[in-house]
Structures are given as C-alpha cells and as structure tokens.
Design goal:
There is one protein chain. With about 120 residues, the chain is an alpha+beta fold. Helix content is about 55%, strand content about 10%. The protein has helices spanning about 5-15, 35-45, 65-80, 85-95, 105-115, and strands at about 25-30, 45-50, 55. It has a three-stranded mixed β-sheet. The protein binds zinc ion. Zinc ion binds near residues 69, 109 and 112. Zinc ion (ZN) binds near residues 73, 109 and 112.
C-alpha cells in the first residue's frame, strides 16, 4: 500500500538526489504478509527495486537511507532501460571474477551505497 508519507519520502529523496521521482511507487510490506515471510525474512533482504517499483519491509519505512539507496536503483533502471537487469547480473559476475563480493562490489550497489 502506498502511503502519503512514502510518496513524500520519495519526493524528498528525489529532490536530494537531484532527480525527479514521480512515477515511482514505494510499497511497504507488513511483517504479516506472505512476501515478508517467503522473501524478505529468508533472504534477509530489506528492500527490492524492480524498475519504478520499490518493495520495502515496513520496519524500514522511516529509514531514509534505505529509500535513498533504492531510488538510486530506480535511476539506474531508467538509465539502462530493459538492459538494467542483465547489466546488474553481469556486474555481479565481474565482481566475483575479480575475487570480490558479488553484491557489495557490484558497481550498481557501490554507486547506490555511495549516494545514499
Ligand atoms: Zn542495492
């Protein structure tokens, strides 16, 4: 469910990042939902972005750095279009081949962590 606070936070983070985020939807997933039980809890993922859609554990709704991080991914997805998912996976392979961490050393994650 999109909350007014969520929309405001997205707008605020967008303004801070220097980009306009108008189409982006942020969904806060409550701890009682199947998505939390079957995806967020077992993977320990806090938030997940697919194109313009951000899914986030409700418990992190007030954590602006998580939202800012995910909005960098929204911007990356806009930059790359449909190529973003293969580019992201390829960046993980490249990091792994360098002997680095597939997630933390993925160039898209590095950018998102640097800017959030
Ligand atoms: Zn990320």
């Amino acid at each position: 469910m999109i909350t007014l606070a969520g929309r405001f936070l997205a707008w605020l983070a967008g303004a801070w990042l220097g980009t306009q985020i108008t189409r982006t939807r942020v969904y806060y997933v409550p701890p009682t939902s199947w998505l939390d039980r079957w995806f967020f809890k077992p993977t320990k993922v806090i938030a997940f972005t697919w194109g313009e859609t951000v899914l986030m554990q409700e418990a992190f709704a007030s954590d602006e750095s998580v939202l800012a991080h995910e909005l960098v991914h929204v911007e990356q997805a806009r930059r790359y279009g449909w190529r973003w998912v293969p580019a992201y996976l390829w960046a993980s392979v490249q990091a792994w081949r360098r002997g680095e961490h597939w997630y933390y050393d993925n160039k898209f994650e590095r950018e998102a962590y640097e800017r959030s």
